[in-house]
Amino acid sequence: MFESFQNSLQSALKSLAGKGKLTEANMREGLKLVENSLLEADVSYAVVKDFMASISERALGEKVLLALRPTDQLVGIVRDELINILGPVDPSLHLKANGPTILMLCGLQGSGKTTTCGKLSRLLLNEKQKPFLVAADLQRPAAIEQLHVIGRQLNVRVYSELGAQDPVKVCQDGVRKAKEAGCNVVILDTAGRLAIDKELMDQLIRIDNRVQPDQAYLVVDGMTGQDAVNSAKAFNEALELDGVIMTKLDGDARGGALMSVKQVTGVPIKFLGTGEQLDALEPFRPEGVVGRILGLGDMVGLVDVIKSKVDAEEQKKLQDRLQAGQFTLDDVRKQLMMARSPGLIQKMMMMMPGMGEISKMLQDSNAEKGIGQQIGIIDSMTPAERRNPKIITPARRNRIAKGAGVQAPMVNEVIKMFDIMGPMAKGMAGGNMGTAMKAIEQ
Ligand code: GDP
Description:
There is one protein chain. The chain is α/β, with parallel strands linked by helices. It folds into 3 domains: 3-86, SRP54, nucleotide-binding domain (Four Helix Bundle (Hemerythrin (Met), subunit A)), CATH 1.20.120.140; 101-296, P-loop containing nucleotide triphosphate hydrolases (Rossmann fold, 3-Layer(aba) Sandwich), CATH 3.40.50; 305-441, Orthogonal Bundle (434 Repressor (Amino-terminal Domain)). The chain has 20 helices and 8 strands. It has helices spanning 3-17, 24-40, 45-61, 70-86, 113-126, 141-154, 167-180, 198-211, 226-238, 256-265, 286-293, 299-309, 312-323, 329-339, 344-351, 356-361, 364-379, 383-387, 394-404, 408-441, and strands at residues 101-106, 131-136, 157-159, 185-190, 215-221, 243-247, 269-273, 281-283. The protein has an 8-stranded mixed beta sheet, sandwiched between helices. Helix 9 links the parallel strand 5 (215-221) and strand 6. Helix 1 packs antiparallel against helix 4, helix 12 packs antiparallel against helix 15 and helix 19 (394-404) crosses helix 20 (408-441). It is flat. The structure holds guanosine-5'-diphosphate. Residues 107, 109-115, 143, 146, 192, 247-248, 250-251, 273-276, 280 line the site of guanosine-5'-diphosphate. Its EC number is 3.6.5.4. Belongs to the GTP-binding SRP family. SRP54 subfamily.
């Protein structure tokens, strides 16, 4: 995410790094480079102009900090201003204590509305809420089935009406059904169009007036750059938006649309969509995003990612087995499966300070392939071998290697990993992991 923005800004700042002392001339040069990076990153011209005016004023006025290198000083100013523009943050869904909270998602076709309905439902399920989905996208026939597929995947109820013509009625009926089913959050998946048109806006305004959603969120595709800004403007003028969810920030999105959309709508950016899977939704925190853009890392985000992948119940079971002296290679396999979640390794690397560059060199697929082979090795063992790897003789080792399609020394590595992980996991189960995470969080 934001890689090209990050790259152009970092190389711009690098060219300043050689200059030991801050002068008005090199600060101006640095500011010009920042301006170009922003434009290249798809931030709209008007927003760049405003942004540059505010950082120039600060940068050129801050001559007192002569002790700092110009790059450091400029990075500091750019960071503060970016955080300023992207905030304030409000990732809350403002759920009501009584009665269902109605969330309406709107946006152009293909922006990721239906997928985001699923992502929000997953998030709500994790928070022990009871989401309910309403298929009100009557424009795109496949959308209804797509929502049902997501609903089945998450075990969340989906309301749709066969052959329905009126999305307002579908939404009203859906809200009633949700109440009957005892669900407390209703998510309306509304229709999109390939481009803004009056009919679409009228339909959304009718739903807004008659169903009165508590929160109306615009879903925008972060890959579309300037178009995202234009559609955000149109939606914001037609509806009273409460927030924006920007999707597809995992691909080649240049990230600049975040700044522009925030500027033109003035409403909080709630979440970022970072993948097609239903767990690829991050609460928006400007500090984290800006830290990543400037290569300063995002420790809070990192802790969130780790936490979201560590199943508390599984960890408890592991702890119990460890205490009973029952840690086996099956447990190692479970940990490996967790580490193999798509993109996890790269995601973690991108969030660590200074690791952005390295993570690009270290192809994610290679690391994931290695984990896949290790899982294959464990799968080729007999249950007895997994319980007690000490019984693995050279003949058994060759059999396992053959079964997994790897060289025999790799089998040894997995056994060695088991020897190391046992005591380490014991430490984690004893609470060290929690302490370690706390230390990072602070
Ligand atoms: P809708 O027409 O607005 O309902 O859009 P969909 O939910 O059908 O999404 C359109 C396409 O974008 C689908 O192929 C989704 O899998 C994909 N998509 C949605 N969100 C994201 C995201 O955050 N990242 C990526 N890479 N793809 C996404």
